[in-house]
Amino acid sequence: MAEAEAKMKQFNGGGGAGLDAERGRFPYCVVWTPIPVLTWLFPIIGHMGICTSTGVIRDFAGPYFVSEDNMAFGKPVKYWKLDPSKVYSTGPNAWDTAVHDASEEYKHRMHNLCCDNCHSHVALALNLMRYDNSTSWNMVKLCFFSLLYGKYVSIGGFVKTWLPFVLFLGVIVTVVLTLHLR
Description:
By secondary structure, the protein is an alpha+beta fold. The protein is 42% helix and 15% strand.
């Protein structure tokens, strides 16, 4: 009996169980990965996706394309675990339905780096499911919450995100100091 409950808890993503970074499974999570060059300059900017209840990643990867389990810029390095009990939408399997409906909507949209992008796709899914009884999810809120509540998959993920920025900053500081000390 305890084994069956443990398996069900793992499947439902309860208590953090069910996360499997090796297989790329993050049930009930928002996932994030760096975008080369852009994240090197601004480490809080990256590519975002949302996962189904079984951990399948959906991300708005480009114009008229929502990928499944193949994020546009590589495997997730960060995840933000959400609580499925905070879904206020009605209907069977409201979480997966909202993720599916948002993905279908974004299969008909042009990608715009600044206004209608992967963050907007995740925001639409959260708005459709009325996550945390809110329909005001947006790019800025998601970026802030992901920064605040997101956890790195591994130390390697942390390094992949921050090392290029630190090196870039080091080069700038070195150049400024070298020119200033002349």
